[in-house]
Amino acid sequence: MTTPIVTFEICRSCRKCCIFNEQELDEAPVITTDAKNCLMEQFPNEEIAFEPLGRMWRIVLHPTPVEHRWVCPFYDSQTARCRIQHLKPLGCVFYPFYVMRYQGRLVIATSRICPASTALDTTALVAYLRVGPGPLMVREARKHPDIVIDHREGIRILLEVHGDDLLPYDESGERSSGCES
Description:
The two termini are 33 Å apart. It is built from six helices and 13 strands. The chain has two domains: 80 residues, no CATH class; 75 residues, no CATH class. A hairpin with a 2-residue loop joins strand 12 and strand 13. Helices cover 26% and strands 26% of the residues.
């Protein structure tokens, strides 16, 4: 996702979001049944497959020549672009941010491999998410709970979801009011 934080130039030069290692396979894009059906119609001669995931479908990744790496079948390595912008999966739209389950609650976290998000401090990312895509991410996660993945060690949590509020994550377990003193 290109944003004021992650520019198109930075995003296009990297493309780590479309290539997955063994620990990231559960981050493969997830789409609705309608989107799956459209993709099957639009790409009838290609080797694309989907795995059921609740009421959604996970795109089956293709192995790459690099050992233990998989790539999204809709990634065009020649142009470094997604071929399905019109049906782009929500996880791809929101990347490098995720809605995740952590200790029984929803949180918003950031990718550990996106150079743009790892270079920025937490304060900047939290401020952007609270006024930018954060509320939409939570609405979509509630609408499509199958897009929510479990938190894994090493993924930085930025916000906790409390009802309709997005509060800065506090590792101590205490709830932050989100107000600065």
